[in-house]
Design goal:
The structure is a single chain. The protein has a single domain, classed as 2-Layer Sandwich (GMP Synthetase, Chain A, domain 3). Helix content is 36%, strand content 34%. It has 3 helices and 5 strands, in the order ββαββααβ. It has helices at 29-51, 91-105, 107-114; strands at residues 2-5, 11-14, 55-67, 75-87, 118-127. A 3-stranded mixed sheet has the order 3-4-5, covered by helices on one side. Helix 1 crosses helix 2 (91-105). It starts with a strand and ends with a strand. It comes from Halopseudomonas yangmingensis. InterPro entries: KH_dom-like_a/b, OsmC/Ohr_fam, OsmC/Ohrsf.
């Protein structure tokens, strides 16, 4: 088990499964990569939609990933699906926010893509009354 302390002073517990010598007391290190990617992209999408004055109530980002079968078991493919909930959302704004995050702003996504990971994105809009 490892405690990782960020430069901003926050702590994250990481561990492995018992069959790999861990005690299953925290997230796996590779899971933290996906969590970071999801957080980075979500922050961008929310920020861009807020600047576009879209009435968003929730953004949930679902990630699916595949890893190589052999060591090092790097990510080979990651798909991000943004589920954007709000009132009167314009699809063009949601699409633009997702595209800008992927192509310009999300440093985690861009870095992983440059390292050869196939990264894809899509979105779903959930309209509420």
């Amino acid at each position: 088990m490892f405690l990782a302390e960020s430069g901003s002073g926050h702590t994250l517990v990481m561990d492995g499964p018992p069959e790999a010598g861990g005690r299953n007391l925290g997230v796996r290190p590779m899971e933290t990569v996906l969590i970071g990617l999801g957080g980075c992209a979500s922050y961008d999408v929310v920020s861009i939609l807020q600047k576009a004055r879209q009435d968003i109530r929730d953004v949930r980002t679902e990630l699916e990933a595949e890893r190589a079968d052999t060591e090092p078991k790097v990510f080979t493919r990651i798909h991000l699906r943004f589920v954007v909930t709000g009132k009167g959302l314009k699809e063009a704004h949601v699409k633009r926010a997702v595209d800008l995050s992927a192509e310009k702003y999300c440093s985690a996504s861009i870095m992983l893509g440059r390292a050869g990971v196939e990264i894809t994105h899509d979105y779903q809009i959930v309209e509420i009354d």
